[in-house]
Amino acid sequence: VITAAGFLVLVVPIESLRMTPGMVLEGSDRRSALFGGASAFVATIAQAYDLPDLPYPYEALEPSIDAATMKIHHDKHHATYVAGINGALEGKEQPPIADLMTDAIKGGVKGIRNSGGGVYNHDLFWQVMAPKGKGGEPSKDLSTAIEKAFGSMDSFKEQWAAAAAPAARFGSGWVWLIVDGKKDLKITSTPNQDNPLMKGVEGDEGLPILGIDVWEHAYYLKYQNRRPEYVSAFWDVVNWNQVNSWYTDALNGKAPQF
Predict the structure, then answer these.
(1) Burial class (CB within 10 angstroms; exposed 0-12, middle 13-18, buried 19+) of 201
(2) Between the N and C ends of the chain, which has fewer C-beta atoms within 10 Å?
């Protein structure tokens, strides 16, 4: 069966399952119950990277980000990266997406760097946003760290805007707030679908806890060439509750996992 998203799904008749009366199949047991080539095929599908649902409706981030942009960005662009990484690793081990990031550049496999990076970055992006008024505030610990690193929250936002400006991040890319090896906060920027988890990345390496997509597809329908307006509006929908949690994890050496 071809799904609406363009994926091939194998439908296996229930008669082809090796089951005993009263047997309940879950996870790997369900896959192992299939016979012949169908078993291997379904196992591959089950282990493949998936396009996650958005944690809110398409229109939930308006007016900062419009529903049409969210739908295209998630359903088309993110889905393309998912298809790309699944194609690059077809028939191979498919570890957690974060585990692929470390050697994504040095490994020299474009499908992993570009598509894998696109999957990881967008998985993070959707979660660092929440409907206006629902994202909470920076925790005391994070606020203290921001003041130490940047002087104040206002100064942090100014430096973030400067890093995201077209003159600073020319073309496509991302801007990140990271925890570096000294457990200090830094703002960094990466091109294309690179991210700070990748060894050898342009910019600083570290554990990302906040990121903004500055590819044109992330904002052009609403803002056209006015990227700074999009960057400014982003603050109204930041999910500080999630950023706080990732900051705590990063201090313990753990990157966001999806």
Answers:
(1) buried
(2) N
> Residue ranges of the alpha helices (H) in the chain?
27-32, 36-47, 67-72, 79-88, 97-101, 110, 117-127, 140-150, 153-164, 220-223, 227-234, 240-251
Helix (H, G, I), strand (E, B) or coil at 78: helix
Q: Are strands 173-179 and 185-191 parallel, antiparallel or unpaired?
A: antiparallel
Beta bridge partners of 179: 185, 207
> Which tens digits make up the pLDDT trace of 142-175?
999 999 999 999 999 999 999 999 999 998 999 9
pTM of the model: 0.81
pLDDT tens per residue, range 188-197: 999 999 999 9
How many CB atoms lie under 10 A from the CB of residue 103?
15
CA nearest 238: which of 147, 120, 136? 136
What residue has token string 């925890």? 179
Task: Report the distance separating Cα 100 and Cα 194, nearest Å.
Answer: 12
